Amino acid sequence: MTYIAKDYSKLIGIEGFSETLLKNHFTLYQGYVTNTNKVLDTLRQMLKDGKTGIPEFAELKRRVGWEFNGMRLHEYYFENLGGKEEINEEGRLYRKIIEEFGSYEIWEKDFKAIGTMRGIGWVILYQDIFNGGLINFWINEHDVSHPSGCNPILIMDVFEHAYMIDYGLKKSEYIEAFFKNINWSAPEARLK
Ligand SMILES: [Fe+2]
After folding, report:
1. Which residues of 48-73 are buried (b: 16+ CB within 10 A; e: fewer)?
2. What's the pLDDT tens digit per position in 3-41?
3. 92-190 homologous superfamily
4. What's the rounded Cα separation, in Å, for the pair 178 and 174?
5. How far does the centroid of ligand 1 lie from the alpha carbon of residue 182, in Å?
6. How many helices (H) and strands (E) does the chain have?
7. pLDDT-derived band at 188, boundaries 50, 70, 90
8. Distance 157 CA to ligand 1 centre (A)
């Protein structure tokens, strides 16, 4: 299986995100796709050549989660951008958020607070596929601490490359811009 980088150039022009920032971010994402393919190809070749016992095999196996999630998390992120409307208050996601958090505002406060924590990473609203519950998570590295059996619903990139070109250290201003541009139909469709 070869992964192909998706084209998110339709996002260019959204308010609060400069073309320079977005183009840099797309390039970075394309690098993850390229490296995912490279690492997976190399591992397949090593398997064919009977080289599974060598340290390089183990190190690449450890590495692939970083590249793969770096690719996939960016896809979730770009796909939940580009909207202009508020969350649909008649929709399932809105109702589910209220059921879980008490109000939309409480959920949003939690999600934004996680985003302003020091450090680089991702803020992810997950749905536990076993009980349907929603939970906001801080994910520090692509390959670490993702909750098993949970499905990403809404993803916000808070690595410095996601905002510093436009906002410097004003991460909270970036988070406000992110919220203004959420394409709510994406998380709505991800909800089970
Ligand atoms: Fe990113």
Report:
1. eeeeeeeeebeebeeebebbbbbbbb
2. 999 999 999 999 999 999 999 999 999 999 999 999 999
3. Iron/manganese superoxide dismutase, C-terminal domain (3.55.40.20)
4. 6
5. 16
6. 7, 3
7. very high
8. 5
Q: Would you tell me which CATH number, out of the four given (1.10.4030, 1.10.287, 3.40.50, 1.25.10), belongs to the domain 18-79?
A: 1.10.287
Report how far ligand 1's centroid is from the alpha carbon of 159 (Å): 6
Residue spans per domain, the chain: 18-79, 92-190
- Residue 12 is which amino acid? I
Q: Which token pair is 120?
A: 């680089």
Entry pTM: 0.96
Residue with tokens 């989660």: 65
The pair of three-digit structure tokens given for residue 33, joined into one six-digit string: 């796709």
Distance 1 CA to ligand 1 centre (A): 23
Cα(158) to ligand 1 centroid in Å equals: 7
Q: Which H or E run contains 124?
A: strand 122-128
